[in-house]
Design goal:
single chain; 248 residues; mainly alpha; elongated; 0% strand
Length: 248
């Protein structure tokens, strides 16, 4: 398999998760093969379908071969630093993390966002995304606290980060810190009825200057807690060998 093929994300071609089973890959290939079979099209659409069909066939052949799949996994796990500057590498990790997050694969998402923060510790967005992912599991909340504090250090006047910090510490039962961040969000961004409600639920605002409370952040927090209960169960095949599990 050529070097260029090694760097190709065959998982994205088929639209399957990195941990997809051979059975799931085969099923997905059959679905796409039926949808994009060239015999179903004419003219320019037929030519496009032929290219698509070649791509999905190549992806299927690679991902159903254990040796070639392992080579692809290793290549995808480490972007070619020699060919890209650090910002490019960070974007690769962020995009992978976002894709995994949308697929509900929070272990993989956290791994990629964590790598993004390691590659570019001053990327506030990477710390923000890591925070959101870590909030999917109660046992990851300590890491969420660290991540959102770092994001707020990098962008101290970014109200959404301050509100998220309030939510993280409220969920962590660290009321004083939650108030601190909510009040800072008010000071920077002005009155916000959502923050007012959040502070009231924490037991009232204790701030002398920039009064008022609120972000629907706390309400979102309550819903988020319920969502974590439903979403936090890890897929069986994610439970071993994960960098994220080693770190946390």
């Amino acid at each position: 398999m050529s070097g260029s093929s090694l760097n190709k994300d065959f998982y994205s071609v088929l639209g399957v998760a990195r941990d997809a089973s051979p059975k799931a890959i085969k099923q997905r290939f059959r679905e796409l093969a039926r949808e994009r079979h060239p015999d179903r099209f004419t003219g320019e659409e037929k030519a496009r379908a032929e290219r698509d069909f070649q791509d999905i066939t190549e992806a299927f052949n690679v991902l159903t071969d254990p040796v070639r799949r392992r080579q692809v996994d290793l290549a995808l796990a480490r972007p070619a630093e020699a060919k890209h500057d650090p910002a490019d590498i960070t974007r690769v990790y962020l995009n992978r993390g976002i894709r995994a997050y949308k697929q509900g694969n929070f272990i993989d998402a956290a791994n990629n966002f964590d790598r993004a923060t390691q590659n570019d510790p001053r990327n506030a967005q990477a710390w923000h995304h890591l925070t959101l992912t870590c909030m999917k599991e109660t046992r990851w909340l300590p890491r969420a606290q660290e991540a959102i504090e770092r994001a707020c250090e990098l962008r101290p006047e970014h109200v959404p980060y301050l509100k998220l910090a309030g939510r993280v510490f409220a969920e962590s039962k660290m009321t004083a810190k939650a108030r601190q961040y909510y009040n800072q969000a008010l000071k920077v961004g002005g009155q916000d009825t959502g923050i007012r409600r959040a502070l009231e639920q924490l037991g009232g605002a204790r701030h002398g200057g920039a009064s008022g409370p609120g972000d629907s952040a706390h309400e979102t927090s309550a819903r988020g807690t319920q969502r974590r209960t439903a979403e936090s169960k890890e897929p069986e095949n994610e439970k071993s060998g994960s960098l994220f599990r080693k770190i946390w």
